[in-house]
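Ticket #4471: structure output looks truncated?

Reporter: J.K.
Steps to reproduce: submitted the chain below (471 residues) through the standard prediction queue, then opened the result file.
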Amino acid sequence: MTMPLMLAAVALAQAVATVPPVRAVAPAVTARAATPAALAVPPDPWATQDPADSLYRAARRALNRNDYNGAAALFHAIPRRYPRSAYAGDALYWEAFALYRAGGSENLRSARARLADQERRYAAAGTRASGDAATLAARIDGALAQGGDAEASARVRATAQGTATATTRATAQAGACPDVDDDDDPRVAALNALLQMDAENALPILKRVLARRDPCAVGLRRKAVFLVSQKKGPETEAILLDAVRNDPDPEVRQQAVFWLSQVDSDRTAVLLDSLLRSSTDREIQEKALFALSQHKSARAGEALRGYVQRADAPTELREQAIFWLGQRRSEETAAFLRDMYARLTEPQLREKIIFSLSQQRSADNARWLLERARDQSEDLELRKQALFWAGQGGVPIADLVAIYDQMPDREMREQLIFVYSQRKDAAAIDKLFAIARSDPDRELRKRAIFWLGQSKDPRVAQFLSDLINEP
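Returned output as attached by the reporter:
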């Protein structure tokens, strides 16, 4: 038996015997909704001999099934009936939490009063020591302030003003600083509440937070950058740009660039372009490229095109610019990339253009990709890339089939055979049949037979059987 026929026999066995693999079913994951305070699920009961244990269990069950009024009543009963219970201090927190979730001005005022009771009577309670009570108080004050409560508004402003004041090194070392990943620090909650109820007065305070350079300020500045971005306006751009240029923390600078991308204006695009050109920080440059890619303005597209043309810019960053341009689907962008291909010499950049154009499915791009594949003056690897992405990019299978006999070099024909194997079209399988049966190149016949063996087309098994049994 000749080698192609032996290969056909192996391929036939694969085609007949292959059973589609059983797909593993991922376990269901239930995502808990984001909660308005750091601690939102009461801990498991821990004092089984405590007289309030059964009450705590009942209250916990009610809260976990979102029966907020019922949970509040049950938690309220614990310190009232068993003031010395191990559960009493934290029960006031959980009552306040349930009332907060129930909503309504009366419930909010009652919730704030319960936290004040906890501070007065159970200062050592775990939910106070952890800071959860302070965070919840800030959230409640913010909700009350938005409803017009003057006392709550004053508390929010006082906390926010305090956040803008630098702490001492000793305070920072004592552990009073917010963790850099803590979204529920009461100071951050107060800043957020102030921004929602009085954005104009919040921005000056946020600017002072961003100006802090004490050891405790890094986490607060990272949060402040986000909060500034939520207030749309000309001052927002200036504050974020100042953070990009002057903040000593790299994450603050990178986040400021990212949030600039969400301010969609020509002025922001100009600022980002300036930042991209002037910064020597690689991370900032990458973030600026991404930020420009998120802008839909013509000015942002112009900035990306300008960067691609910069021969003095790092090749890796120019590759990123080409990639992001490829996501801006327009004939203008495609024409620019096709023109740049002829002007560039770096293989990495040319390869990125081939990929980007393959993502913008159009007749012009399909024709251009096939021209690159046929052009024998091109680098062979780039021709193979163009052919592969032409196949992936929706070039009509008839066009791909037609060029097989026009390819004089074996490597390009091998690439075409692989491209046919990746298409689901019947015409692609037909072409593989023809190659496997009659191509004058024995190695190419073997290649076609191999890929037919991987196909799920129902005709393949019979074709391979007939091929084996031919006289």
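Triage note (M.O.): checked the attachment and the full token line is present. The longest helix spans residues 105-121.
Status: closed, working as intended.
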